[in-house]
C-alpha cells in the first residue's frame, strides 16, 4: 500500500482487494484552492466511486447538461471522456472493475451501463450505502481497504449469473494481445462467426469486440505513458505508439483525441501532477 502526497492530492493504492474482479483500488483525498473539472478517460473497466464527504458530479458533456450527483457512482464502458466536477475538498475510494464481474457478482450485464453513469445503489444494492458510511467512519486506509475487500468477497461468494463462455474467453484473448489481435483470429479462437461474436459482445458489454480491442490498446498506451511520467521520464510518444501496436504516432494521437478530447501532450500537461501523485491506476492487467 503506497501513498504519495502532491500537495493538492493524496492517492493511496489499495492493492488486490478482489483479484480477478477488481483490477485496482485507490483511495484519494483532495484539498484544492478552487473547484476543478477532471477528465475520466475511457478504459476497459467499469468505474465505481464511493465518496466520504462531497458527492461526485459527473456527466459526458463538458457543459454539464447531463450531470448526475451521487455519493456512489457506477460508470459503464464508454468511448468519450467523462467530465467530473471536483470540489475543493473530497475523499473516497475509486475501483476499476472488470465488466464481466458485474454479472457474476450482481447479476447485471455491463451492457446495460454503456455510456452511462448511475447511482451505484441501483445496481450494487442498498448494502453498498452502508459500506460507504462504514468506510467513511474508519480512521485509516488499511482498515478501509480491508473492510472493502471483505464486502467484495462476500458479494463474489454467490455467483448470480455467468456471461457466455465465448465472451469471457474472447475478453481474455483481447487482453492477452493488448487489443492488437485481428477480429478474424479472435472469432476463430472462440469458434464463432465475427457477426455472432459481435452480437454477443454488444448484448453483454454494450460495444463490439473491435471497440473493446481499441480500448485495450489505448489502456496499454496510457499505462506506459503514466509509468514514464511517474518515473520522471519524458514519454516518447512514437515509441509508445510502436510498442502498443499503433500503425504510427498519428493513430495514437487520433485515439487520444477521441478518448480524452485532446492530444497526448496536452493530456500529460493537464494531468501531470495527478499522475505523479499516483492517479490513474491500471484498468486492466496485461501479461508481461
Summarize the model shown.
The chain has about 290 residues and is α+β, with helices and mostly antiparallel strands. The protein contains eleven helices and eleven strands.
Compile the SSE list and pairings.
Blueprint: E1 3-5, E2 9-13, E3 22-31, E4 36-40, E5 46-51, E6 56-59, E7 68-70, E8 72-75, E9 82-86, E10 89-97, H1 99-106, E11 117-119, H2 121-124, H3 127-137, H4 141-156, H5 165-176, H6 183-189, H7 194-205, H8 209-230, H9 237-243, H10 249-260, H11 264-277
Antiparallel strand pairs: 1-2, 2-3, 3-10, 4-9, 5-8, 5-10, 6-7, 6-9, 8-11
Helix pairs in contact: 3-4, 5-8, 8-11
Keywords: DNA-binding, Transcription, Transcription regulation
Protein name: AraC-type DNA-binding protein
GO molecular function: DNA-binding transcription factor activity; sequence-specific DNA binding
CATH second-level architecture of the largest domain:
Sandwich
What order do the SSEs take from the amino end to the carboxyl end, as H and E? EEEEEEEEEEHEHHHHHHHHHH
CATH domain class of the largest domain = Mainly Beta
How far apart lie the N and C ends? 22 Å
- Oligomeric state of the chains in view: single chain
The global form is globular
How are the strands of the largest sheet arranged?
A: 1-2-3-10-5-8-11
Assess the beta-strand content as a share of residues. Answer: 15-25%
Overall strand count: 11
| Helix-strand category | alpha+beta
Q: CATH homologous superfamily name of the largest domain? A: Jelly Rolls
Report the total helices.
Answer: 11
Q: How many domains would you count in the coordinates?
A: 3
The helix fraction, in percent, is 40-55%
Query: Would you give the CATH topology of the largest domain?
Result: Jelly Rolls
Question: Which value, in Å, is the CA radius of gyration?
Answer: 18 Å
Amino acid at each position: 500500500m503506497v501513498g504519495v502526497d502532491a500537495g493538492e492530492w493524496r492517492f493511496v493504492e489499495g492493492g488486490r482487494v478482489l483479484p480477478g474482479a477488481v483490477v485496482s483500488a485507490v483511495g484519494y483525498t483532495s484539498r484544492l484552492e478552487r473547484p476543478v473539472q477532471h477528465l475520466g478517460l475511457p478504459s476497459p473497466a467499469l468505474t465505481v466511486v464511493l465518496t466520504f464527504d462531497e458527492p461526485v458530479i459527473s456527466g459526458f458533456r463538458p457543459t454539464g447538461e447531463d450531470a448526475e450527483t451521487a455519493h456512489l457512482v457506477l460508470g459503464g464502458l464508454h468511448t468519450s471522456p467523462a467530465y467530473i466536477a471536483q470540489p475543493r475538498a473530497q475523499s473516497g475510494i475509486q475501483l476499476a472493475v472488470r465488466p464481466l464481474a458485474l454479472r457474476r457478482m450482481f447479476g447485471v450485464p455491463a451492457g446495460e451501463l454503456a455510456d452511462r453513469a448511475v447511482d451505484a445503489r441501483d445496481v450494487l444494492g442498498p448494502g453498498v450505502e452502508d459500506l460507504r458510511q462504514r468506510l467513511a467512519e474508519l480512521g485509516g486506509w488499511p482498515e478501509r481497504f480491508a473492510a472493502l475487500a471483505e464486502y467484495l468477497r462476500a458479494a463474489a461468494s454467490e455467483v448470480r449469473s455467468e456471461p457466455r463462455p465465448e465472451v469471457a474467453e474472447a475478453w481474455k484473448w483481447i487482453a492477452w494481445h493488448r487489443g492488437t489481435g485481428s477480429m478474424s483470429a479472435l472469432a476463430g479462437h472462440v469458434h464463432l462467426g465475427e457477426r455472432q461474436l459481435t452480437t454477443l459482445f454488444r448484448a453483454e458489454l454494450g460495444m463490439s469486440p473491435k471497440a473493446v480491442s481499441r480500448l485495450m490498446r489505448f489502456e496499454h498506451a496510457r499505462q506506459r505513458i503514466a509509468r514514464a511520467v511517474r518515473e520522471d521520464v519524458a514519454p516518447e510518444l512514437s515509441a509508445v505508439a510502436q510498442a502498443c501496436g499503433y500503425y504510427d504516432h498519428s493513430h495514437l494521437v487520433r485515439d487520444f483525441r477521441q478518448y480524452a478530447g485532446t492530444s497526448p501532450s496536452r493530456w500529460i500537461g493537464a494531468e501531470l501532477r495527478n499522475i505523479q501523485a499516483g492517479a490513474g491506476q491500471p484498468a486492466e492487467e496485461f501479461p508481461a
